[in-house]
Amino acid sequence: MAEYKRPTTKAEFDKNFKQKKPLMNDTEAYYEASRCLFCYDAPCVQACPTHIDIPLFIKQIHTDNVTGASKTIFDSNWLGNACGVVCPTGVLCEGACVYNHQDVPPIQIGRLQNYATNKTIDANKTLFKVGASNGKKIAVIGAGPAGLACACEARTLGYEVDLFEAKDKPSGLTVHGIAPYKITNEEVLKEVEYLQNQLGFNIKYNTAIDSKDELTMLETNYDAIFIGVGLGATRHLGLEGEDKKGVVGAVEFIEELRMKHHNTKVPAKVVVIGGGNTAMDAASEAARMGARKTVLAYRNSKENMGAYGFEYDLAISAGVDSLFNVTPIGIVGNGHVEGVKFAKTELVEGKLQTNMNNTFIVRCDMVIKATGQAKQGHLYDLIDDLDIDKKTRIKINSEFQTSNAKYFAGGDAVNGGAEVVNAAYDGKMAAQGIHNWLNK
Amino acid sequence: MVDLSINFAGIKAPNPFWLASAPPTNSGYQIMKAFEAGWGGAVWKTLGVPVVNVSSRYGSVNYRNTRMMGFNNIELITDRPLADNLREIEEVKKYFPDHAVIASLMVESRAEWEQIIKDVENAGADGIELNFGCPHGMCERGMGSAVGQEPEVLKTIVGWVKEAAKIPVITKLSPNISHITDPGLAAVQGGTDSISLINTIKSIVGIDLDSYAPYPIVDGKGTNGGYCGPAVKPIAMHMLKDLAQHPEIGKVPLSGIGGIETWRDVVEFILLGATSVQVCTAVMHYGFGIVREMEAGLRQFMEDKGYNTIYDFAGKALPNVTEWKHLNLKHKVVAEINADKCIGCDLCYIACDDGAHQAIALSDDPVNRIPSIIEENCVGCNLCSLVCPVEDCITMVKKDDGTQHITWNERTLNDDIPVTFDDDRAGGKGHFVPKPTDALKNER
Ligand SMILES: Cc1cc2nc3c(=O)[nH]c(=O)nc-3n(C[C@H](O)[C@H](O)[C@H](O)COP(=O)(O)OP(=O)(O)OC[C@H]3O[C@@H](n4cnc5c(N)ncnc54)[C@H](O)[C@@H]3O)c2cc1C
Ligand SMILES: Cc1cc2nc3c(=O)[nH]c(=O)nc-3n(C[C@H](O)[C@H](O)[C@H](O)COP(=O)(O)O)c2cc1C
Ligand code: SF4
Ligand code: SF4
Ligand code: SF4
Q: Are strands A137-141 and A224-227 parallel, antiparallel or unpaired?
């Protein structure tokens, strides 16, 4: 079990948050590329949500056509560089690699991908041209992965694109939410800058679109609008004492960590509530920030956790303890949190039931709620005729068009929370959907 | 703007990537699939006299984790009826009028040649390739490499064909010969419009250690096969260069064949004078899709170098492939180890100590095993840099200042041929060679 010293400098922070998928060197890339079998109709390609032609780009790396490899990658996925390191490759491309059937480690597709795109970005090689201007304009709400992918694709099709972003940085949760041991802020931002230099889309920062007037302005000035606003803040649990100091949402905690690094305050004892990937990340991160004790508490059993097994293992290896079949029933403390009161849960006739006769308190100085993000319903309510489903996800057709023909949507706002790669795919396809619609 | 289209001796194609006459071009189905995938031309599997094939036809040499590094076959020419092939040629041309469809032919008598040429011309073939290369089976019947090895016979047949044919003629040469320029010149003198090479090389790829028969084994026996695939590329490139540099043969367009798999191979063949390339084994291994990597790579190369067509750089390496006697004897390189990259495998040490010039010393430090170059002893042979498993760890660094230049040819002309062993870089003068007994670990 790893014990992390509290980081006090950027260097110590970087050490505790060492990259899980470090950049490959030339030798490693050469040998790894030479292992690829170049399968026909390769299962890895089928497993990639953006269908990157993986054997092709691996062969291009092997024949020293790294620029060509990057072109192959970006052709399918505008955030190919970030995806190489942030994608859960074990359940996507690498999980599908045929080597798994021979008990041979699969090809490290993600790292090879990142190797190629990194070289191309660092050399600032121009791969794409802006399409001949067609005089039409697209507004994109939210400069996260979905919005950026939509912008890039739309630029190659000849549209003017303005992105409206609430925050002061591009790329959404890739820079604000993903665990720092997966990707650094610099790496995220350099990819966006590289794309922006080539494709010239405009991003208006600190410009949240959250009023009817602003929406009307977009509707009048643009031919189509793409909604890529992702999800919102951590959902309120409605627990007694939830407003005490030291009770924070996971997304907010992680965002602070991504922005302030070692200057983020993490006390000695931390309880993380939840059983999804965000809970695993938050627990890992608290432990890496030097919390002496980090406890993951999940209301169901280990088998029923939503998180990937490897994310749980990563948290455990960082020194996190876990409690299963417990549900929080209140936060105790005097102004500041001092502990969480839990009740045991059990399965009764297939249904999870809380046993209020079996309760206990776990002492802590901080509670991180990783129990899901709220949807951006307040914004959707302002858009005329916008259909949303029961879970407040925007409904779209196969062209990524919403029930209000002028609006298209993709990413977390549509799928309810998936991966960067899904958002990148959606954004690209939505731009094509807009193009098809405007050229009908 | 990069334009990959070619005009090869009058045969036009959207790009220089052609399929060689072989199993991938056995049928209209395969060729249409290939054209859809991006190939610019195809040489139809050789048409000719009726044949029968054996079952168990291919063998291969696997090198470490690389399968089919070398490949051999004992297959004959097409075993599908001529009428079927002709009908399919016509159909392919209907769907792909701008792609090159070339009929490979192999028959015996003059009358047979004249008839089959008429047949493929009527079917709409864009050109003819004469198969004088098949080194198994067909040669036992006096065709294929049996012709390719007899320049006079080859010249006569090319003459017959040229008299009969209205479409361009490519003569495909066999590498199973001492001087490729002999059949090359015969083909040109016979009037061929162009030459392609190489066909396969006579080979035995392995012997089964239980049945004592060579692969591929046909009921306990085997025969020599035709060798191809990545292993034959160096031989093919050398023969291509010999033809391209020849004052007469070099005037006809050359189609390069042998071990081509990636864009790099393609560029290398073009740099040695080929203006179309043909591929067989790599397609048999991976399918037609490999052309995408070739095309993307070739385009990238041409964009990076500022070339518009392949003719802008075709043959560009030829002036630099010269005879040994024209190499600068004053050029000096010495190996240099990048200590930051070295992983201490000491392969360079043992390669140099046992296999070269005793110019690498082991480290005294058992933990840090980084060896060092003994500069006085290094002759600049490259061996260590070739065995080193780390990319760019051993580099060969130029040590001469570039001001001096003398070749063996110039020394001969200056009457300066050495009468003693006076080379600074050889054992005995500047270069230290250990005593033979230094090799002994035990008293003897
Ligand atoms: C903790 C955590 C860890 C994750 N880890 C991974 C991982 O390892 N790998 C992975 O692939 N995925 C991971 N994900 C998921 C991934 O980050 C998301 O799926 C992806 O970022 C979704 O992209 P998006 O563009 O749909 O939304 P977002 O990334 O959320 O971007 C939306 C953007 O819109 C802006 N915005 C919102 N509302 C407005 C408005 N009204 N006006 C203007 N702008 C607005 C936001 O500021 C933001 O920049 C993680 C998510 C979380 C929460
Ligand atoms: C199975 C097999 C069958 C072949 N048949 C023919 C043939 O019918 N006619 C011909 O001219 N060459 C034939 N060849 C030779 C190829 O066209 C080509 O010249 C050779 O394989 C070298 O190219 P490669 O290294 O790309 O395979 C054959 C090769 C193979 C492997
Ligand atoms: S499945 Fe694995 S071996 Fe096959 S092409 Fe994909 S990465 Fe290569
Ligand atoms: S490759 Fe096809 S024809 Fe050849 S042995 Fe296998 S199945 Fe039979
Ligand atoms: S071969 Fe390369 S890596 Fe190995 S010891 Fe020599 S220099 Fe080092």
A: parallel
Residues of the domain holding B85: 6-320
Count the neighbouring beta carbons within 10 Å of the beta carbon of residue B400: 12
Query: Which residue spans of chain A are classified as CATH 1.10.1060.10?
Result: 20-122
The superfamily (CATH) of domain A247-369 is FAD/NAD(P)-binding domain (3.50.50.60)
Minimal C-alpha gap between A318 and chain B (Å) = 30
Would residue B134 show up in a list of annotated catalytic residues for this protein?
yes
Q: Which two tokens stand for residue B227?
A: 């060798």
Q: ipTM score of the complex?
A: 0.83
Domain boundary among B251, B285, B320: B320
Whether the upstream peptide bond of residue B198 has omega within 30° of 0, thus cis, is: yes
Answer whether B65 sits within 8 Å of A65, measured CB to CB: no
B357 lies in the same domain as B308:
no
Q: Are residues B175 and B312 in the same domain?
A: yes
Quickly state the pLDDT bin for B428 (edges 50, 70, 90): low
Residue A56, chain B, CB below 8 Å: the answer is yes
B179 and B277 assigned to the same domain: yes
Q: What is the DSSP letter of B314?
A: T
Closest approach of B69 to chain A, Cα-based (Å): 13
The answer to whether B305 contacts chain A (CB < 8 Å) is no
Domain A20-122, CATH class in plain words: mainly alpha
Identify the pLDDT of residue A130.
97
- The fold for domain A137-232+375-438 equals FAD/NAD(P)-binding domain (3.50.50)
Same domain, B414 and B331: yes
> Strand pairing partners for B7?
B12
Does the beta carbon of A38 lie under 8 angstroms from any beta carbon of chain B?
yes
Instruction: Identify whether the C-beta of residue B307 lies closer than 8 Å to the C-beta of residue B1.
Output: no
Q: Do A65 and B392 touch (CB under 8 A)?
A: no
Cβ neighbors of A318 (< 8 A, separation 6 or more) are A2, A4, A283, A284, A287, A288, A294
Which CATH number covers residue B362?
3.30.70.20
Position in ligand 1 atom list of the atom nearest CA A171: 49
Q: Are residues B151 and B220 in the same domain?
A: yes
Answer yes or no: do B171 and B62 share one domain: yes
Q: Which residues contact B310 (CB under 8 A, 6 or more apart)?
A: B4, B6, B16, B270, B275, B298, B302
CA distances (Å), origin B105, targets A271, A395, A429? 80, 62, 50
Enumerate the residues of chain B whose CB falls inside 8 A of the CB of residue A53: 292
Answer with the one of B273, B288, B320 that is the final residue of a domain.
B320
Each residue's pLDDT tens digit in chain A (440 positions)?
458 999 999 999 999 999 999 999 999 999 999 999 999 999 999 999 999 999 999 999 999 999 999 999 999 999 999 999 999 999 999 999 999 999 999 999 999 999 999 999 999 999 999 999 999 999 999 999 999 999 999 999 999 999 999 999 999 999 999 999 999 999 999 999 999 999 999 999 999 999 999 999 999 999 999 999 999 999 999 999 999 999 999 999 999 999 999 999 999 999 999 999 999 999 999 999 999 999 999 999 999 999 999 999 999 999 999 999 999 999 999 999 999 999 999 988 889 999 999 999 999 999 999 999 999 999 999 999 999 999 999 999 999 999 999 999 999 999 999 999 999 999 999 999 999 999 99
Q: Is residue B1 part of a domain?
A: no
Verify cis geometry, omega within 30 degrees of 0, for the bond prior to B216: yes
A25 contacts chain B (CB < 8 A)? yes
Token code pair at residue B428:
């005995």
Could you tell me if B131 and B255 lie in one domain? yes
| B306 and B410 share one domain | no
Domain(s) labelled CATH 3.50.50.60 in chain A stretch across 137-232+375-438, 247-369
Which chain A positions have a beta carbon within 8 Å of B289's beta carbon?
Answer: 40, 56
Atom of ligand 2 nearest to the CA of B199: 19
Residue B443 has pLDDT above 80, yes or no: no
Number of separate domains in chain B: 2
Q: What is the pTM of this model?
A: 0.90
Please give the pLDDT value at position A2.
57
Residue listed under structure tokens 């993380």: A272
Between chains, do A68 and B297 touch, taking CB under 8 Å as contact? Answer: yes
